[in-house]
Amino acid sequence: MATLSKKELSLIDAYWRAANYLSVGQIYLLDNPLLEEPLAADHVKPRLLGHWGTTPGLNLLYVHMNRAIRARDLDAIYVTGPGHGGPGLVANAYLEGTYSEVYSDISRDTDGLRRLFRQFSFPGGIPSHVAPETPGSIHEGGELGYALVHAFGAAFDNPDLTVLAVVGDGEAETGPLAASWHSGKFLDPERDGAVLPVLHLNGYKIANPTVLARIPEEQLADLMRGYGYDPHFVSGDDPADVHEQLATELDACLDRIAEIQQTARTGKKKPADAPAWPMIVLRTPKGWTGPAEVDGQQVEGTFRSHQVPLAETRTNADHRKQLKKWLKSYRPEELFTDEGALVPELAALAPEGVRRMSANPVANGGQLTRELRMPDFTAYAVDVPDHGTTSSEATKVLGEFLRDIIKANPDNFRLFGPDEVASNRLSKVFETTDRAWSAEIIPGDDHLAPDGRVMEVLSEHLCQGWLEGYLLTGRHGLFTCYEAFIHIIDSMLNQHAKWLKTTRDIPWRRPIPSLNYLLTSHVWRQDHNGFSHQDPGFIDHVVNKKAEVVRVYLPPDANTLLSVTDHCLRSRDYVNVIVAGKQKALNYLPMDEAIAHCSRGIGIWDWAGNTDGEPDVVMACAGDIPTLETLAAVELLREHLPQIKVRVVNVVDLMRLQDDREHPHGLTSRDFDALFTKDKPVIFAYHGYPWLIHRLTYRHTNHDNFHVRGYKEEGTTTTPFDMVMLNDLDRFHLLMDVIDRVPSLGSSAANLRQQMGDARLAARRYTREHGEDDPQISDWTWGAGHGTADD
Amino acid sequence: MATLSKKELSLIDAYWRAANYLSVGQIYLLDNPLLEEPLAADHVKPRLLGHWGTTPGLNLLYVHMNRAIRARDLDAIYVTGPGHGGPGLVANAYLEGTYSEVYSDISRDTDGLRRLFRQFSFPGGIPSHVAPETPGSIHEGGELGYALVHAFGAAFDNPDLTVLAVVGDGEAETGPLAASWHSGKFLDPERDGAVLPVLHLNGYKIANPTVLARIPEEQLADLMRGYGYDPHFVSGDDPADVHEQLATELDACLDRIAEIQQTARTGKKKPADAPAWPMIVLRTPKGWTGPAEVDGQQVEGTFRSHQVPLAETRTNADHRKQLKKWLKSYRPEELFTDEGALVPELAALAPEGVRRMSANPVANGGQLTRELRMPDFTAYAVDVPDHGTTSSEATKVLGEFLRDIIKANPDNFRLFGPDEVASNRLSKVFETTDRAWSAEIIPGDDHLAPDGRVMEVLSEHLCQGWLEGYLLTGRHGLFTCYEAFIHIIDSMLNQHAKWLKTTRDIPWRRPIPSLNYLLTSHVWRQDHNGFSHQDPGFIDHVVNKKAEVVRVYLPPDANTLLSVTDHCLRSRDYVNVIVAGKQKALNYLPMDEAIAHCSRGIGIWDWAGNTDGEPDVVMACAGDIPTLETLAAVELLREHLPQIKVRVVNVVDLMRLQDDREHPHGLTSRDFDALFTKDKPVIFAYHGYPWLIHRLTYRHTNHDNFHVRGYKEEGTTTTPFDMVMLNDLDRFHLLMDVIDRVPSLGSSAANLRQQMGDARLAARRYTREHGEDDPQISDWTWGAGHGTADD
């Protein structure tokens, strides 16, 4: 028996035609939206900017999901991998009324249709992609590869949600997408929702066939089975036939999902029974229902339908005629009333209220965001009896705070990391939770469980993508990563930052929790992995994004890390990058001072300098290792050149260095000058590439006196102190820099400079002989024996 | 019948034990390499930096490959996915003699052994990974994900080569690796060599089990079949049993490879018969043959063997005792002579000369590099009768040059791109070649063939990785990509740049062809894709790399693009980034001037300015669109404020802006001042993020007068001129900037400023009304009607 009655099939097909009509209308028409007049050149847009090829397939899936939503009262969203199919998603949001609700000028009548068409890819209008402006979207889909991973991120901790994830066969060739299929092993059918992937094989990319469309179907089925899915195939180019197949297979898939969830949720499932989730392979022609042939070349069913099949509709009457025929082929007169509204019989096919995929609050996650329940971070403070005399592993301390955040927010916060949570010394979290793992578990495994709150997979792409999906649907999280390898997701960060920037100007989009990074195992302490693991450049990448979106923090010790993390986790709509060490390092500030310092973001450390007045030199530092080396240099300076007045400035919030016209955290000229003077040398020890400090400070008065040391791409497998020496960031070199910059110090300084050079050579010799740093250097603490302890 | 005779098995096992012994020795021992004395604390390294877990598996595969190489006279290299297994690859290079050939101090005796052990992960010694310092390596393996794609890159156009590609099961979780399996569809069994992937399932990452080790074996087999392979399984923890299995399956795989190649090369194969290539799944314990248990916890066969199973061998006598037992378990006395040389019976197992995988010249590709045969690029010049009056599509012109390079170098050059070669207007190349494609080909396909020289797949990771493998083995190539999405491979660029930097200091490593990028479809002309496709930040990322390695070029038109590309393709050991437009744009320079301009890299365009002497303002520009807007602004300036003396400086080679102490291409202060003056305002229109210009120029005298316009992260789907206006880079705004910066211009300037503001509003209004730019703006050419044409 057929799944669809004749009547249902006819209605579904009509709804699909309506969506296709509106899609073509958006790409082509400036006016005359219902073709009530003869189609004239000036009814057509002068520049045709849009993508037709993928759109009919997206529309097809939308209307079939609508049927399923109504039939099952499904709570569902639609993630569009081929985001350039924007016209289709806009069309559907319009057809079901959401579009007019959020954009009141785009009304459900002829005038609204005109505006809907005109605004698309038009100056002052809307983008061509499934952008933040598109209701129901959590995924712009411009940079391909992240549809499936976003879908899984949305499904985590949303047990009632079904995410339809359309994966284009172009996108399927990307690395991140290829890895994303494995996400099922990290999804708990009991506590998480479901993802239904649809691999849409329309066969072509911009100019080429796609790999997965050109391998034998049995090989493709093997691939999907290998990824852990049970593939359901739907193929054809006859609409009625495809409608029937798709309705049948979609029902089968949703039945199977319900069954898997039912089994899991009624306690019948053993953890190791990883189910094969259903997925759909939909094989339909690219540019389906569009012009079969243009100027003698086949277009429908080929890569030539990728963008605009008819390119000269403004100037070429034949093309225009063909456009009209194409539009008319959808029989708009059957679909829309004379006033331009969807006919009621079709309007009734859409789900209602928040069941509409375009109006599901999950896709405007800020609406659903619950505040994190935050334990008092000061309760985790390390005791700091004196500045810089005791040590902690900062991230290990943070682990206790994170543990209790996880405990207090059992369905609202997750920790993400590429197999590095333990390596990054956050293992305390495993006192309260496990790593999410729905594949096989064997004796001896360390904290694995299907409902674990720690997401670990050796893929920065998956960590980032899951977290993005989780945040975009209103929940909270933290991504902890080796500093060097966070570059793997540079481009994903770009896209998320662009999303955040854009949503700030969309009133109906509510703020979402910030994207928080904890970068550790950083450039200065990759002792055992060496050069390939040494790269602090993610900060540089991030600060290229819009100033109102990005924040960078370099807490120098455990208490400042606690304070900064608390701040970041409470924030909204930012990208927060925290860089902190995991190795044993000095505690500089007791908690009260840490809080004060972090809330200023930058400040003078009076206890470290030797003057309350105007200094001869400013020693500035940002980052744990630069702070250590700066203080050690300051101590040497105070011992050997006590006549020099030195001020120590520590920077936690890097954006404080910028001009207040450039960044909302930026300092005024007056405040900057008060810290760094107007004319004194500033020796700045910085965690990353030194020129970033110049780029941030170049507008400030005293910039020409800034002398910055940082990572200059020198490194290997070696000791910590050898690393700083390789990059001239060591205490001895910093002191040499002071001597070189402070005028007229006389001959004692020249001798001291020589001594410092000798100390460097001795340190290198020691290291190469013993294979470890001289303990006099590595065990250094503030004030030990040099009479500079806090008084 | 067994594949291995008892004698063979025993020898192979002994060789494996020798490699394992040397691996453990490197990780632990400072001295007493053959345990001739009792093992004392100071024989052991104070800091243990290395990774044991993966190493025995790598050593196992090495000795078995050696057997196959000798038996078949194979030309083979070994790509080590788990690059942290460095001790194993170093051990094998040492065992077969290569190590001592390239590092004469590491001799094949006890003294050499001592040095071999000591140098590993030791200050002043060698890195812990399979770094450039390791003979036979083309793959550092620190950032995981690229083993397989590098292997394929090496195999292309090397028909006699077999690349063993070991993929760790951790690495297998990454996106790039997951996509890499599909590389087989782009390999021509007739003209390319073979890749034999080994998926090494040792079951664990740093702290977690691996996904592929925990799915049912049948699912894994499906996955491999789905990827297009015929999997051969080898599993066990009994060495003798595993030796026999591995020898048998390796033989079967190599037989099958020979058969596929034979079929393809004797013309019996139809293009569509994509063969299932063999691959091996090797399942052996992590840390195999290491300590089974330490301090009561299981170590062998778990994630606890990832790094150093015994962590306290210096301070804990029990650990040291266990280390001794572990080392002795390999029975070194059977493996090495009293003088510390490998016993002759074992030494005889290694292949000889260049058949040794550590000595194969393919893995030191510069040795094999043949010069590209370069047609004369000036033959492709566009005719430029007057500066800036005619138009070309620069990349389309370049396409002709590339076509003929491909033609002249049929086995030595490839063009790589993520489905964008046609979109980037390089289609002329298809007059001489096709896209590489070994999957199904159907009628209507556009230039697909197994032996195509254009590598197109929708994965920037694969394009980059294939090209890296191709370059590292001594061939030439060019990667053309949308500018925004090249960020996808930021981290891969990092690793390649680090490789290039390191090899400069390794005398036996020969220079290899440069890594060349052509970035087009750039930020200013993403009219139809909008914000997600707009990002010029790759340049910023690249300039963080070591100055001696990176070069960035912004040719403003077709002839300069030809000249720059010719230069880049001839170079060695650089990363060259070329950013150029693909849209119709003005031709500024005839070829002779283009050559002169490009060889200087920066220069005054006399024809555009109105003074030979000291100017009142310098209008500088870098990039095609900034050059266009600058010239249009200059023309307005010359028309409306003819009393102002303006100089136009165009920058092609971005690194010329830096100080000569910072970059080898940098200008001296004197030269910089001669171009930019010491004190006049400089209005700089730049292609990318404006602060990069500040970062490059901050050391120069006149820096404080630099006023830079560029992309400030504002964009959407809109017209070209609207894009430049959104970012204040338009001609009108540049002129306003001049007025704001040149002192005492009087009231006529104030009026002009107002006019310019009005012109911006009018332009925006026009665009929003018509959906395209005002033709007066978009059709602008130099000198048209304003009396500023060249005279």
TrEMBL record, chains A, B:
PROSITE patterns according to UniProt: PHOSPHOKETOLASE_1, PHOSPHOKETOLASE_2
Pfam families listed in its UniProt record: XFP (PF03894), XFP_C (PF09363), XFP_N (PF09364)
This protein's record includes keyword Acyltransferase: no
Family: Belongs to the XFP family.
Cofactor(s) it depends on: thiamine diphosphate
Region feature (Disordered): 766-791
Name of this protein: Probable phosphoketolase
Domain (Xylulose 5-phosphate/Fructose 6-phosphate phosphoketolase C-terminal): residue spans on this chain: 582-782
EC number(s) recorded for this UniProt protein: 4.1.2.-
UniProt keyword annotation of Ion transport present: no
Domain Xylulose 5-phosphate/Fructose 6-phosphate phosphoketolase N-terminal: 5-367
CDD domains: TPP_PK
First-level EC class: lyase
Keywords: Lyase, Thiamine pyrophosphate
Lineage top rank: taxon: Bacteria
